[in-house]
Amino acid sequence: MTTTVLVVDDDDAHRGMLRMMLKSWGYTVEEAADGDEAVDKVHTMAFDAVLTDVRMGKVNGIEAMKQILSYNPSLPVILMTAYSSVETAVDALRIGAYDYLIKPLDFDALKETLKKAIDHSRLGVENRELRRQLSEENTSSEILGRSPAITSMLSMIRTVAPTEATVLITGESGTGKELVARALHAQSLRKSEPLVVVNCAALAETLLESELFGHEKGSFTGADRRREGRFKQADHGTLFLDEIGEMPIGVQAKLLRALQQGEIQRVGSDRSEHVDVRVIAATNRDLRKEVEERRFREDLYFRLNVISLEVPPLRQRREDIPLLATHFLAHYAERNHKNVKGFSAQCMDMLLHYEWPGNVRELQNAVERAVILCTGDLVTGPELPVNIARLATEDLPKIAEAPSSLAGLPLEEVERRAIEETLRETGDNKSAAARKLGITRATLHKKLRKYGSDKAED
Q: Which of 41, 97, 140, 265 could form a disulfide with 92 if both were Cys (CB 3.0 to 4.6 A apart)?
């Protein structure tokens, strides 16, 4: 593996001596004659460490270090300083320098410091990558489902996440768009940096502009101090703009500038600042229609919609309902200290036949309510919200009911029907059914075998 060190010094002879020494130790060396040139090189090339003099003509080493660390905080910067500037170098350690060396240089100390700095930097990169890999499966697994629609979406997330593309997530309310945004960030190369979330529908236009870009003290009533905006907080990370369709048209122009040029401007300031932010946006609106009706800028729409990810509504992935419902049940049972084990067969039919206009969020809320109200081992249906039980039952296939009178039926037929109905009510939970029937589980198995039931051996 090639290890490249940037040597920054306005003394040509000293820089040349360092070049020869570092090359003899196996390093690849790039050179800069002043801090300005060093900053430009860091923006265009990859380095493992920077070795810079403090006192230089145009841009000194301290200022260059600040700009370098602002661009790449993980790049180790080692300062070279004379005795008279030791205090300055010590102050530099507080703002991010890896170490400092006193001139004339002790080459053994230089060699050891460089090695430690590069090893430390690479270890940090490896640790971040390991954390990314370890969390990737867990993060993706939060998006539960095995349906073709969800499988396809997860595949798209894995493909898009490591890129720098802007992503527009679309879908109805409650489908889990923020969860998709978090999965994109967690599997991206920016995973170790912040994910900052802004709900564009929650703030008025003036407040949203300040929230995104920050403001200067006194720029408007109530601005009693300078404030960094969400773009600045997300620098080198990801900014998730939820409900982007609700963003006022006046703020859209500033957002477009930030996306196109990577520059923001605080409210009340005439100075632009560079930011390195990946933007992910989400909406439940039809942005094409919003563009046609001039409520959303067309140029911003195309800039956001580099990659589009649609989250399917729950009614289009009904095969995922049992998995989701069981997951929520286990979570809320533990959270509320309830001994609820599952759903009865009839209750699960209700969940499967309901249309879920509120999508996964509505299912989650319904299961939480059911767990809280449940007094037995199973959620049987009455614990669900009335609208779900009533509307779902209208479409349920009718379950055969026992006759109003059992008179004249053979005892074995009465017993068989009692066992079948009890198993149905308990969701085929044999232990629960046996308790209700007042018999042992072993006796229940014998009777099921006697009546030739296909449930005798499962």
A: 97
Distance CA 130, CA 189 (A): 12
- The per-residue pLDDT for range 240-253, each reduced to its tens digit, is 999 999 999 989 99
Is 114 exposed, middle or buried, given 0-12, 13-18 or 19+ CB atoms closer than 10 A? buried
The token pair at 438 is: 């007042």
Counting Cα atoms < 13 Å in the Cβ hemisphere of 401 gives: 5
| Rounded distance between C-alpha atoms, residue 206 and residue 138, angstroms | 38
Cα separation, 39 vs 68, in Å, equals 6
Q: Whole-prediction pTM value?
A: 0.56
Distance of CA 75 to the CA centre of its chain: 25
Phi/psi-derived region of residue 294, left when phi > 0, alpha when psi is between -120 and 50, beta in every other case: left
Whose tokens are 């309901």? That residue is 354
How far apart are the C-alpha atoms of 322 and 348, rounded to whole Å?
7
Tell me phi and psi for residue 294, to 5 degrees.
60, 30
Q: pLDDT (tens digit, 9 = 90+) per residue, 400-456? A: 344 445 555 667 777 777 888 787 777 777 877 777 777 887 788 788 877 776 666
365-373 long-range CB contacts below 8 Å, 24 or more apart? 367/325, 367/328, 367/329, 367/332, 368/328, 368/332, 370/329, 371/329, 371/332, 371/333, 371/336, 371/338, 371/340, 372/332, 372/336, 372/338
- Can you tell me the distance from the alpha carbon of 266 to that of 229, in angstroms, rounded to the nearest whole number? 8
Instruction: Say how far apart CA 100 and CA 44 lie, in whole Å.
Output: 25
Two structure tokens written together for 260:
């196109």
Helix, strand, coil fractions of the chain, as percent rounded to 5 = 50, 15, 35
| HSE-CB of 439 using CA atoms within 13 angstroms | 16
Based on the number of CB atoms within 10 Å of its own CB, is 268 exposed (0-12), middle (13-18) or buried (19 or more)?
Answer: middle
> Which amino acid does the sequence have at 309?
L
Percent of the chain with pLDDT over 90: 49
